[in-house]
Design brief:
The structure is a single chain. The protein has about 210 residues and is mostly helical. The chain has two domains: about 1-90, Tetratricopeptide repeat domain (Serine Threonine Protein Phosphatase 5, Tetratricopeptide repeat); about 110-210, Methane Monooxygenase Hydroxylase, Chain G, domain 1, CATH 1.20.58. Helix content is about 80%, strand content about 0%. It is built from ten helices and no strands. The chain is elongated, with a radius of gyration of 28 Å. The termini are far apart.
Length: about 210
């Protein structure tokens, strides 16, 4: 008898439990937005992903971008890239999504992939705040690469101060190789941003050394 009563109680409770567990995509989205307002980005991401799954092909564009942002903030970078790429496909804040994809790749040390994303973004987005940071990031990357090689050349050249006279020609030749190697990177930076102060400064030094 006790078992029967227990079963009946469970059966009566189950519909209410099921109703409590069933949320719509919009409810998950609103729940995620509330978590974001409270800066609980991990919980927000979980809610947004539930909403995205329920929406299927009719997904809300803003929620996809918000999911990417929450994943980035919680350092779930592969997930962030996935949703940022989806935002690009949906053409929702595609410029900022492109920048964040590149930024994550750069932090992961994937320089070639980062460069490819930035080059693509630089070609596509010409106006707006995101276009500015894409331009700055791409030029900065090229300056960083060129300046590192330029500094190698200067370090080599610096050894001539304590070298024997017969070693000077060899030292200057090796340094010149580095300066020559560095120049295309700085030229790329100036193609992206002709007024980049760091690029202009390094180019001035390179031209002086390559006279």
């Amino acid at each position: 008898m006790k078992l029967s009563v227990k079963i009946l109680l469970m059966a009566a409770f189950m519909p209410f439990a099921a109703m409590a567990q069933e949320k719509t995509a919009d409810e998950f989205k609103n729940e995620g937005n509330e978590f974001v307002r409270n800066k609980n980005y991990k919980a927000a991401l979980a809610s947004f992903e539930q909403a995205i799954e329920l929406w299927g092909d009719s997904v809300d564009q803003a929620t996809v971008y918000n999911a990417a942002d929450c994943a980035r903030r919680t350092k779930q970078f592969d997930t962030a890239i996935k949703y940022y790429q989806k935002s690009v496909e949906l053409n929702y804040k595609a410029d900022f999504s492109t920048y964040y994809i590149a930024d994550i790749l750069g932090d992961q040390g994937k320089d070639e992939e980062m460069e490819a994303v930035l080059v693509d973004g630089f070609a596509k987005y010409k106006i707006g705040k995101a276009a500015g940071v894409i331009k700055k990031s791409l030029a900065g990357y090229y300056v960083k690469k060129g300046a590192a090689i330029y500094n190698e050349g200067n370090n080599i050249l610096g050894t001539s101060a304590t070298a024997k006279p017969e070693e000077y020609a060899s030292i200057t030749a090796k340094a010149k190789e580095k300066f020559t190697e560095a120049k295309p990177w700085i030229e790329k930076a100036l193609e992206v941003d002709a007024t980049n102060a760091n690029a202009l400064k390094v180019m001035e030094g390179l031209n002086e050394q390559l006279k």
